[in-house]
Amino acid sequence: MDWYRMKTVLIFLFLAINLFLGALLGYESFAEHKSAKERTEGTVTVLQNGGVSVSAQVPTSARRLRALTLENPYADKAAFASRLLGEGATASGDGYEKDGKSVRFMDKGFVYQSTAALTADKKHIAAMKKALESMGFSMRYAKGSLEDGAVVFTQIIDKVPLFGCRLSVSPASDGSVAKMEGTWANVQNVNGEKKQVSIAAQALLAFLQEGTHEGETVKRIECGYAVLLSPGGYRTADAVPAWRIETENGTVAFFDARQ
């Protein structure tokens, strides 16, 4: 028996099988993408017939995301104030004060004021991130940018945003935080199994089915993570894959993207 020739034949056979399987997977991916694109185009037409215009670029692909476990860093307001202001902070109105510093709580988020603020530049992004970490904020997934003279932090996980988390931070001359305001979450767990989420077309249909958006124009639709809880805050919660739809008149709606 010519083992060398047989070995060569087997190599080419396995190569042919791998090429066939690769082509099959490529065709399935192409077919799925084509189907999702056609479904999305049909959905946009349905919305327009229902009185809802769509000016946004609607994604046709489906991401693979997971559930996250979040902790609200200011769920315990007294403990949060003590961490920012020091022990012995005095309750005052809707917040706490100590030694000229204050923290105020709003329906969504908080405002912290310490001292006079500087206009932020690029070097302050890393400095403010480090300062916030020292104040007990989870900054592992934080992305910083400059906006209106302040450093703005958002959170990006699995290449998508964590909706509802945005901190505007102004630096002090000594490198500390002079002022900050907004909302934030400490990300505790991102180890869940990734699963494919629904496509944007399903969220758009759910938006139309609410029956209250006739005459509106969808200007943005984006996939990310969101805490789908009623107003009132949380101590710990799961942030799940969700579609965020925003219209030109300011309406914002979230739809569960899990399948």
How is this structure best described in words?
This protein is α+β, with helices and mostly antiparallel strands. The chain has helices at residues 3-49, 77-85, 123-134, 200-209, and strands spanning 53-54, 64-65, 68-71, 90-92, 95-98, 101-105, 110-113, 142-147, 150-157, 160-171, 177-183, 186-189, 195-196, 217-226, 236-247, 252-256. It is globular, with a radius of gyration of 25 Å.
Task: Report a brief summary of the structure.
This protein has helices at 3-49, 77-85, 123-134, 200-209, and strands spanning 53-54, 64-65, 68-71, 90-92, 95-98, 101-105, 110-113, 142-147, 150-157, 160-171, 177-183, 186-189, 195-196, 217-226, 236-247, 252-256.
Order of helices and strands: HEEEHEEEEHEEEEEEHEEE
Low-confidence stretches: none
The coarse silhouette is globular
Query: Helix segment count?
Result: 4
Strand order of the largest sheet: 4-5-6-7-11-10-9-8
Distance between the termini: 55 Å
Strand segment count: 16
Defining traits:
single chain; 259 residues; alpha+beta; 4 helices; 16 strands
